[in-house]
Each structure stands twice: as structure tokens, then as C-alpha cells.
Amino acid sequence: MPRVLVLNGPNLQRLGTREPAIYGTATLADVERDLRAAAPDGVEVELRQTDDEATLLGWLHEAVDTGSPVILNPAAFTHYSYALRDAAVLVPEAGLPLIEVHISNPHRREEFRHTSVVSGVATGVIAGLGVDGYRLALQYIADRLPRD
Ligand code: DQA
After folding, report:
1. Does the global pTM surpass 0.85?
2. Residue 107 annotated in active site
3. Domain of residue 89, CATH code
């Protein structure tokens, strides 16, 4: 069964209570439940979160090794982690989509958020549409999954 990995970086386990005026009140558990409900039959969704850069890199390597499309919210790593970029590029290089998602629109926020070191290697980027961005990314991926 095709599996989509939904990978989330630092502080995103705080969704729901973290700066709700910016990120809304949905929790990551809500996001996972909605994605599973939206996934077409036969498509598995696995959502993970870590504050640890090395763990996130390992999950991207795992996506390559298992042929899993990725929805990635790199959170603050977006803005400075070249290691994350170097791992992220392996996903599209393996022929798998990697969609970068941001709940807020970083371009409307502080200057340091205007740079993403990941966008240049992502298949596509969704930002500023709240947690709906995850579902839209899943829809894009699901529409393109090979069918048997
Ligand atoms: C974020 C935006 C980042 O700038 C921030 O560091 C986050 C969340 C977003 O989803 O809007 O943690 O990636």
C-alpha cells in the first residue's frame, strides 16, 4: 500500500496552543485525523514530528528507501538547515514528490522567515493556507500515485 510520510519539524507538537493567532487551534492529532479521512482508499498516511534535526534527516532517507512521497513542514529548520536541504533533495531525485507546507505565510512575517533553503529542491510549496495546506498537498500526491 502506498504510504505518504507527513514530516513535521520543531515546535509543531505544540500546534493548537502555540501562537494560535498565527497557527490556528488545530492540533497535529487533528491534522493526522483529517489527512487519514481525506486519503483515498489504499493510501496510508503516517504523520510524525520531531524537534531533532538528525531524526528528520533519517526520516527523509527512509522515505527514499521505502519509496514514500513526503509532505514536509520543516518549521524553523526551513530557514537555515542546509543538511535538511541536502536530505530533502534526495526525495525528488528518487522520483518521489516532496511538498513543502507552511501553515502560516512566512513571507508576511519576520525577514528571517522569507528565506527557505528547502523550497529550491521541493516539488512544490504551499504556505499561508493554515492546516488545509497539508490536505491540499495530500490531494496533489494522491492524484499522482501510480494505480494498479
Ligand atoms: C512554519 C513557519 C516557520 O517559520 C516556523 O518556524 C514554524 C512553522 C509554518 O508552518 O508556518 O515553526 O513552518
Report:
1. yes
2. no
3. 3.40.50.9100
